[in-house]
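Subject: Re: docking follow-up (zinc ion)

Dear J.,

Thanks for your patience while I sorted out the input files. As discussed at Tuesday's group meeting, I've set up the holo structure prediction with zinc ion included as the bound ligand rather than trying to dock it afterwards. The sequence and the ligand SMILES I used are pasted below, so you can double-check that they match what you have on your end before we go further.
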Amino acid sequence: MDLTVAGYMKELSEHRIAASRCNDCDALYLPPRPICPNCQTRKMSVERLSGEGTVAGLTSISIVPSAMAAKGYGRKNPYVTGVVALKEGPSLTARIELPDDGGEIQSRVGMPVTASFEAEVDGDETRVTLVFQPS
Ligand SMILES: [Zn+2]
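The structure tokens for the complex came back this morning:
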């Protein structure tokens, strides 16, 4: 695969989470990078991640972008986005689906989550994004 954001998106479309590992200093990058920013080597390997992690921080969004409004989110139906620390080390920002049990979202920090792949249709394009659910 290409160690680029485009390569990462193609992997996502095939339901894989691809990172790159530096063969010299062992640093792991998500999305993948072709050159290690730490030691400037191009000796990078593809590493596929599990999609398992924990919630590091999160917030509720009620003023939503049009793509999320089209899915039914808004003031009366906010969605939650947050930072997930993956068990392999890298963190990413993604939507997090929580059970509607009335719990305060801030109490979810540290909650174990697992990634799923969600297809978003935008005009002629279908884009796959990660959405996390409680493990
Ligand atoms: Zn390196």
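A couple of observations from a first look. Residues 22, 24-25, 27, 36, 38-39, 41 surround zinc ion (CB under 6 Å). Helices lie at 5-13, 66-69.

Let me know if you'd like me to rerun anything.

Best regards,
T.
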